[in-house]
Amino acid sequence: MSVYLVSMGTYVGFFMILALALNLQWGITGMVNFGIAGFYALGAYTSGLLTVRLGVPVGLAIPAACLAGLGLGAAVALLSVRLREDFLAIVTLGVGEMIRLIVLNEDQITEGPRGLRIEARPFGTMIAPEHYPLFYLGLVAACVLLAYAVCEAIRRAPMGRTLRAIREDDVVAAVLGKNVLLHRVRIFAVGGFFMGLAGALYAHYVQNISPEVFMPVVAMFIWMSVIVGGAGNNRGILLGAGAVMVFLEGTRFVGDFTDALDAEKMSALRIIGIGLLLIVTLRLRPRGLLPERKFNASSKLSA
Amino acid sequence: MTTLMTRRTLLASGVATLAAPSILRAQEGDIAIGSLTPNTGGGGPFGPNITASHKRVADAVNAAGGILGRQIRLYQENSETNPETAVRAADKLINVNQVLAIIGTWSSSVTLGIMPKCQSAGVIQMCTSSSSDIPVADEKGLVFNFQPLSPIWGRAIADLVLSRSIESYALMALNNDFTRSMMDGFIEKVGEDALVQKPFYYNAGQSSYRSEVTQLIEKAPEAVFIPSYVTDFTAVYKELYRQGYAGVVITTSLSTGDQFKEAVGAAGDGIIHGFPVPALNSPAYKQYLDEAGLEDTGSVQHPFGTAGRDQMSALLLAIEKAGTADRAAVARAVWDVTTGEGKTAVYNVADGLAALRAGEEINYSGASGSLEFDEEGMVLGRDFQLSEIRDGKDVVLQRLEY
C-alpha cells in the first residue's frame, strides 16, 4: 500500500505542477490554455529524446525541456496578440493537438505510435531501486515547491496585481499604462516552463511514453484541478490537484468491495461517479475548495 | 439532538470505512490476480468479453477448491484503452492488491506502458497485443502474448488474398503501431511491385477522410488494403463508397464487426477481411461457447474473450505446475503447461488440474488457438480466416494455419 501511495503522490505532483502553471495563466492572468497536453508532451518528448537519441545527461535534458516549454509558451502568447480570450482557447487547443500529431507522425525521430522507451532516470545509477520511488517523490515534491514558490511570488508581487487587473479588464490595465502584451507573454512563458518541467519529470518516471498519453483529456484533468481547487489561489490549486486524483483513483477501490456489479458495469459507473463528485463539489463550493480572496474595499476602509 | 445523531452516524460510517479495507484485502493465503481490460475507449467492444472470461475461469476453479489449496482473488480494472490511466491502474494492482500477474491488456500502448512497472516488480503479463516491441522490451521473460504480432497478420492476410489474382494494390493504414506493422507484413508478401503508389498513414479521429481516400484510389488500383479499427474504417469506407470505388476493399475483421455492418448496411457487401480466429473445431472453443452461453453459429464469436479464457487457464495451470505462487517460477511453468509435444492434451482448466495432480505432463490447447509459445513468450500457430461480407453477413472464403 505504501508503495502505491508514494506512486500516487508522484502523480499528484505532476498534476500540481501543471495546475499551478495553468492557474498562473488562467486563474491569475485570465488567459485560457486548452493545450496543456501539448506542453506536457513537448516537455516529455524533449527530455526523453535528448537522452535517448543524443545521450544528453538527464540533468541537462530536463532543463532543456523546461526551456522548450518556455519558448513555446512565449510563441503562442505572441501569436495571439490580437486574439480575444475565447480565440486564444482555440489557438491553444490547436497547438496542443499539433504537437501530439507531430510526435505521432515524425516517427523517425519520436518512434511515433510505437512509443518511446526511456532508460535514463535522474540519479538512476546512484540510488538503489527499492529507494528510488521515494527519492522520485522527493524530487517531484521539490519541483512542486519550486513552482509554488515562483507562482506565489508572482501573485504577491506588484506584478500580481497588474495580472489580476489584466484578467478583469485588459483595456483598463492598458489605459493605466501597463504593458499588457509583455505581461501576457511573460506569464504564458513561465507557465510553459513549468508544464515542460512536469512533462520531463513524467517521462523519466514512467519510462515509456506514446502520443496516446497526451490526449486532450489530460488538459481536462488539470482544468478540473484548478476549478475544484479555486482559481487564483495557489494553495487551493494544490488541494484541487490532490482532490481530483482522489476522485480518479479512489473510485477504483469501490470495485474491490463489491461483487454486486460485474467489472464492465463497474468501470462505466466509476467514470459517471467521477463526474458526479465534480458536480457535487462545484454545487457546494462554486468558487472552489479554497476560493481566491477578493480585495474588499469596504472592509479595508472600516479597518 | 439532531446534531448528536448526525455525529453518531458520522462516527459509525467512519469506523465502517476504516474497517472496510480488511474486506477489500485479499484474505491471507489467497492468490491475487489482476485483470486489466479495455472496458471503455477504443477496445470497448472487446474488453468486457475478456473480463467475463477471466472471472468465469477463476470462479470455476475457486468452486472446485482453488489452486494449491488457496483461493483465487481476482481484481478487475478498466484500462480505458489509455496508457496514461492504465499505468495508474497497474500501480494499484501491483502495489495494493499485490497481484501475481496482470492479464488481459489489449492495446499495445497499454501493454508497453505498464511494462516498466511490471518488470521492476517481477509481475507476469499476459496480453493480446501485437507490437513487435513487446518481446524486445520484455527483458525478464515475464510477458506472454496470446495474439500473433501484427506483421504476421499482414503476411497471413496477404497469403490469403494472393490466390485471388489481384495485380495492383494501394495501401493506407491507420497511424498506430498495430496497423502500421501489419501493412509492412502485407507488403513483404505481395511485393513492392504490386503497389501502384507509396503506402501512407492516416490519423484517427478525423472528421473527414476525403483527401486520404482520393489519394488512395487516384491510380485506380484493383484492390485497396486498409489496416484499421472500426471507428475510423467506418468513416473511411463511407468515403470510398461516396467516391464510387469499384475495386476490392481488404481490411481486418476487427474493422468489420456488427457495429460496422449496422452503420453501412448493404453498401458493405463485397468487403474482404481477415484476422486470426479461434480454432473453431477445437473442443476448447466448443466448451467456451458453452461457458459463455453462446450458440455455435459456425462463425467467429468473441475473438478476444476466448483469449481471456486461455490467459486465466494457462496462468492457473502454471501456478499448480510450479507448486508455488513465486512469480518467476510460475512464468517458467507457463511454457511447461502449454508448449511441447508428447504431453496429455487438455482443453480446460479443470481437466488440466486433474491431470497435473495425477502427475502427468500437460499441454493446454485453448479456445483461441493451440497455444504454443516461442521462447520469447509469443504465441505460435494461430488460424487465420478470410471472409467476405455478403448480404450483411460474413461468408468464410478460406482458412489457413499460420
From TrEMBL, chain A:
Protein location: Cell membrane
UniProt membrane topology term: Multi-pass membrane protein
Keyword tags: Cell membrane, Membrane, Transmembrane, Transmembrane helix
UniProt lineage: Bacteria, Pseudomonadati, Pseudomonadota, Alphaproteobacteria, Rhodobacterales
Transmembrane annotation, as ranges: 6-24, 31-52, 58-80, 87-104, 134-154, 187-207, 213-230, 237-255, 267-284
Entry's Gene Ontology molecular function annotations: branched-chain amino acid transmembrane transporter activity
First-listed, main subcellular location of the protein, grouped into a coarse class: membrane
GO cellular component terms listed in the entry, alphabetical order: plasma membrane
Annotated InterPro entries: ABC_transp_permease (IPR001851), LivM-like (IPR043428)
Name used for this protein in its record: Amino acid/amide ABC transporter membrane protein 2, HAAT family
UniProtKB/TrEMBL annotation, chain B:
Protein name: Amino acid/amide ABC transporter substrate-binding protein, HAAT family
Family: Belongs to the leucine-binding protein family.
Residue ranges constituting the Leucine-binding protein domain according to the UniProt record: 31-391
Entry superkingdom: Bacteria
InterPro entries listed in its UniProt record: BCAA_transport, Leu-bd, Peripla_BP_I
SUPFAM superfamilies from the UniProt entry: Periplasmic binding protein-like I (SSF53822)
Entry-linked Pfam families: Peripla_BP_6
